[in-house]
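Notes to self after the Tuesday call (sharing in case useful).
The group wants a holo model before anyone commits to mutagenesis around the pocket. I volunteered. Ligand is NAP. Logging inputs and output together so the record is complete.
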Amino acid sequence: MKLIDGRKVSEEIYQSLKIEVDKIKSAGGKVPHLAAVLVGNNPASQTYVNAKVKACEQVGFGSTLVKLDESISEIELLAAIQKLNDNTEIDGFIVQLPLPKQINENKVTQAILPQKDVDGFHPTNLGRMVLNLPSYLPATPFGIVKLLEAYEIDTAGKHCVVIGRSHIVGSPMSILLARNSNPGNCTVTLCHSRTQNLSHYTQQADIIIVALGKPYFLKKEMIKEGVVVIDVGISRVESSSTKSGFKLAGDADFDDIAEKCSYITPVPGGVGPMTIASLMFNTLLANRKEIYKD
Ligand code: NAP
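Result:
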């Protein structure tokens, strides 16, 4: 079994981004600038946004944090987004989800200029991804693609089972791995809560991407020998071995399955660090206007 080290790969991405920033600076250019919109006081959202701002500092990008009140109206939020669309200093921005109940998330996603949509959630970017055209790829699936690349995991012709069909992880992941590209060219089975006899599919899989949000869900009797397991899940579970009384758990039961896997990502330290690194990478692409050249 080989451990896929997301911290190490993300660190390498940060190093390469720093080098790019230095090159831009010495050529007298404008450094990449990411903005993050945070609505309300959701502690998890605050943590994620802070981590993104910190990552910008680490690589030398500019960053702007737009903090808005929990009670903001949809019209006011759309106006704030329009301002960011119009601001030429800002190359790309994200609106941290989830949003308060009074706000329609779809409307917000669609209000972001596709050229600045570094989260890759806008229908234009998702459509371009499906068509295998240049697009911002959603950060978590993009990070997984980069991990598969970094560890030279052969995907062509392999059977990949994706568990979970969310718009941000499972669905785009299934599309990316089915595309005629490398990594890609998999035969993909996309499973969800209505899938019957899930083990029937996972037992045949060469690669399993597990993203359903249920800690320790994937067990050894569900997988075959030599499978590659990419664990996206992050859940907080009680633990007597930590000071806080909690620890992070993945969707795979690592201790149970690790021996049977050829490669496996740990939680924490696997997919998680790659998500923010991919967002930084997308911000560089936005700065270079590489996706939308026309
Ligand atoms: P989500 O929106 O809640 O989607 C969960 C998916 O899992 C749904 O498609 C659901 O099916 C499916 N599902 C639920 N129970 C199932 C079961 N028993 N068997 C098969 N499928 C089942 O979750 P998400 O946003 O994709 O996140 C998934 C996990 O990844 C969470 O733990 C989240 O915290 C984590 N995550 C991590 C990162 C990272 O950077 N590492 C990023 C994003 C998310 P239905 O569609 O039928 O309901």
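Two things stood out.
Residues 139-273 form a domain with the Rossmann fold fold (CATH 3.40.50.720).
The radius of gyration is 19 Å.
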